[in-house]
Hints:
The chain is an alpha/beta fold. The model has no long low-confidence stretch (mean pLDDT 94). The chain has an eight-stranded mixed beta sheet with strand order 5-4-3-6-1-7-10-9, sandwiched between helices. It has a two-stranded antiparallel sheet with strand order 2-8. Strand 9 (165-172) and strand 10 form a beta hairpin. The two termini are 26 Å apart. It has five helices and ten strands, in the order ββαβααββαβαββββ. The structure holds NADP nicotinamide-adenine-dinucleotide phosphate.
Amino acid sequence: MGRLIYSMITSLDGYVADEDGHFDWAVPDDEVHAFLNDLERPVGTYLYGRRMYEVMVAWETTPTVADQPPGIQDFARIWQAADKIVYSTTLETVSSARTRIEREFDPAAVRQVKASVDHDLTVGGPGLAAQAISASLVDECHLFVVPVVVGGGVRAFPDHVHWRLDLLDQRRFDSGMVYVRYRTTGPGAG
Ligand SMILES: NC(=O)c1ccc[n+]([C@@H]2O[C@H](COP(=O)([O-])OP(=O)(O)OC[C@H]3O[C@@H](n4cnc5c(N)ncnc54)[C@H](OP(=O)(O)O)[C@@H]3O)[C@@H](O)[C@H]2O)c1
């Protein structure tokens, strides 16, 4: 049985991209990348909304050769080795290996995938994750909080969700970024 993890890098005020659609402030430095890579290593399947996929697919062609920093090479290898399921009504083809398109988000099908694998899964971005959260499919939430306030943009969490969580782990980095890992203790519970 795999756990479904919602993992994002967010501003302190809870945005994954600012009002201009930028998230350059969220780019991990070497220290964070090394930590993040170890978290991603056991993840065998990524569930992506189309917008998140369009950003992440760059890792398919990121060279894993020596002119890249080790953390970048490592993440590219991890990303390329995982299966991807992209949710989209508009995407016609994908440009990465191990990738298939789903035309609708069916919670029962995701539950079945979770039950049939022995590795973890992640879900992102927030638009797709909101549906997984609402369907009580998310087991853990991993947030990297960047020491920046951006005032608006794409929110990490949807409205009207009331979630109780247990803190499992935390870590601070030299950049001021903080990692928090939570387990859901009753999705939808108040
Ligand atoms: N902070 C960071 O480190 C970071 C990293 C990468 C990206 N980002 C940002 O994160 C944001 C992405 O999140 P998002 O919430 O905007 O988008 P998203 O959840 O990644 O993707 C939304 C899209 O997924 C598809 N989708 C969603 N639900 C579906 C369903 N039930 N059935 C079929 N398709 C479905 C739709 O694609 P169609 O329109 O094709 O139907 C929808 O437009 C972007 O702003 C991106 O720039 C931030």
